[in-house]
Amino acid sequence: xxxxxxxxxxxxxxxxxxxxxxxxxxxxxxxxxxxxxxxxxxxxxxxxxxxxxxxxxxxxxxxxxxxxxxxxxxxxxxxxxxxxxxxxxxxxxxxxxxxxxxxxxxxxxxxxxxxxxxxxxxxxxxxxxxxxxxxxxxxxxxxxxxxxxxxxxxxxxxxxxxxxxxxxxxxxxxxxxxxxxxxxxxxxxxxxxxxxxxxxxxxxxxxxxxxxxxxxxxxxxxxxx
Amino acid sequence: xxxxxxxxxxxxxxxxxxxxxxxxxxxxxxxxxxxxxxxxxxxxxxxxxxxxxxxxxxxxxxxxxxxxxxxxxxxxxxxxxxxxxxxxxxxxxxxxxxxxxxxxxxxxxxxxxxxxxxxxxxxxxxxxxxxxxxxxxxxxxxxxxxxxxxxxxxxxxxxxxxxxxxxxxxxxxxxxxxxxxxxxxxxxxxxxxxxxxxxxxxxxxxxxxxxxxxxxxxxxxxxxx
Amino acid sequence: xxxxxxxxxxxxxxxxxxxxxxxxxxxxxxxxxxxxxxxxxxxxxxxxxxxxxxxxxxxxxxxxxxxxxxxxxxxxxxxxxxxxxxxxxxxxxxxxxxxxxxxxxxxxxxxxxxxxxxxxxxxxxxxxxxxxxxxxxxxxxxxxxxxxxxxxxxxxxxxxxxxxxxxxxxxxxxxxxxxxxxxxxxxxxxxxxxxxxxxxxxxxxxxxxxxxxxxxxxxxxxxxx
Amino acid sequence: xxxxxxxxxxxxxxxxxxxxxxxxxxxxxxxxxxxxxxxxxxxxxxxxxxxxxxxxxxxxxxxxxxxxxxxxxxxxxxxxxxxxxxxxxxxxxxxxxxxxxxxxxxxxxxxxxxxxxxxxxxxxxxxxxxxxxxxxxxxxxxxxxxxxxxxxxxxxxxxxxxxxxxxxxxxxxxxxxxxxxxxxxxxxxxxxxxxxxxxxxxxxxxxxxxxxxxxxxxxxxxxxx
DNA sequence: AATGAATGAGGTTTCATTCAT
DNA sequence: TATGAATGAAACCTCATTCAT
Lengths: 225, 225, 225, 225
Description:
The structure is a homotetramer. By secondary structure, chain A is mainly alpha-helical.
């Protein structure tokens, strides 16, 4: 693994991921922009292949086809370029299919669709998700950053649950926030088990099972079932 | 992660966690045994405090009050002593309260008890659990090791679900293995959110909520409720 | 220092301050002249602020508001632009008040005026004087250059002392060259103590004290005192 | 000189010389003590030969005959080992001839003896004195440290001057502190001119001249002259 | 069995200088 | 002339591991 003397040394002093450093301005010239892009793409390849810890800056610059010193024209540290990769991937995750949950659907269909969308996205970005998991386990700041982002997602789910309770569709004795948090966690964990740990379920199986558990858990009444 | 060609060079002296190295025999003399124990305890302190990556062998030996060189009388690497710590903690986790689920209880009570036991154990060992999470995210071998151990736990749960289905207590259309895996995952994730990420739920709230979600998910009929 | 065999390798690209390089011609175009001037002024600011060693060329070009590459249109090295700054400051030091010692004055008044002029000039250029001190301590060539320049100053003083001896005003048993050198050194050192090290004497106190010591040292007879 | 790209980089971040860091304990074992001594001696050789700036740690360890990594067993930085060299040389400067100014002597003899002792010491340690000068010009902390040490020396001289004034031996209208400071500065500067800049005076000439100037400056009455 | 000093590989980082535009 | 991105040569520093005592 990664605790050889060399790599161990590399991890000792973290530069911090979030908040502490303001991202520097993008380069103004086309050439600079091109190089920066090459660097970020190379970093993603290397990070996903080797993990954050084993990724050496020289691997990244080599992959990008530039000299080691040029790295510092664009980033100050491995952490900083990781943040850039993160931003890029998030961009990519959101853009292609504007996660549109058709609101006309019945509750269970909506849950099913959301679960499928989540799993498919996780699959597509599975290498990156493993990377995220690693960085989160290494860096407290990043962990906190991630938690905060998850919170808003949970809140939306909680709101939706509350609505269902008011509509008499979901069980009234359930705490919406905790339920949203725990059920989202269940799905996230399942995706991790499948795409990082390598469990052998099919996505369809997973969607079916998770949707049923989720719907049952909320005691959602399916009128014509 | 640990076998891509690019990073191979840096792993020359890597030890790995599982399989590759047989744990060496315990020292024969009482003095040796005592020193080994001191080392393992020190390692646990340092690992839990600094994380696996930032823990230096010299920190461990200093904490143990022995010289740096003596480390190698007992262990070959950081990975090996980590395994020893792991074994020690597992011992400790099992010993004190032999997780006895009284089989006379009704299903929901049993689930509730299991959930509570899990959360309380997680709380007691929260520092260690965070450490486990980190090491799992770093090392593929360890991840696999962990997955395997979890499997038997899931299998037991699955068996129990199957039993409830046969008893007509739980919904018949549910896949027992997946349900067991996903619901266990839900609880594990909740514990992680609470004790590592720092969510502010009380354990009682969590037990109530998780138990209800779990029981609902399985459509467990509670006759006299 | 700059020619020991061991460190020679590191000096391959060293420029040196004096002799080795002929100052290149001034740019012909007005624009070029303007840019050069901006550079020299920026260099002075940066050198005085950060010292010679910590001054980076990029700091200088940034301060000048030009690009890093343009530096080499005008100068070959940090040493060369330092020489230009030196020339500029020397120009400035001489220009404003043409150090005219009224020859009608009595010897002690002349000494007093010279001392005051020296101290006031040192104060005005104290940042630069500290810089000079630093560069002298770093570079043997520059040290030699400076010594030579000081020599003519000492010689003038020595001549004046010799004159006073012939006039019977100063003690005859004094070596004029050494006296000139040592007493000038005393004043220079006092100025350094005051304006670089930060001693808290007032200039008036210093002038009084230095003048008295100087005059006494030469046994100057003050007829009507 | 030393502003090649390589060495410039080395100077950028100073670790500070004084106060900021507590000197670590001496090694306990004889072997460690021996190695540390070798290092300090090697550092002195390299510093005196190459100057502080051009001295590389690897030069020092090579000179000491140990590996580069071992440096950090004893010192944290170039600044720290410089402090150790400084301490060693100060030890050496004080030991051999316990600067005993025979108090029975007449004032001028005492001044002469002190001047000669100073110059001879400066000559013996001229390489080190040049080094001191360099470090002082580079590092503000060290400059301050040095100033403070000089102060007590000046104070002693001032006290002696005050005594002479009370005894009617020295001119009463002289400020003792300033006179002490300026005259000491004169001697120090003369020594620097001679042994660092390379002026070609003999020590005897210098002693004669400096002593006469000093005595005259204080208007010391030499009864039988 | 214990000690602790010594080793050495190699990634990171800096910035004067070059060069294509 | 001007630009500013790209280069590349080293020095620094760390710490798991070895080894003489």
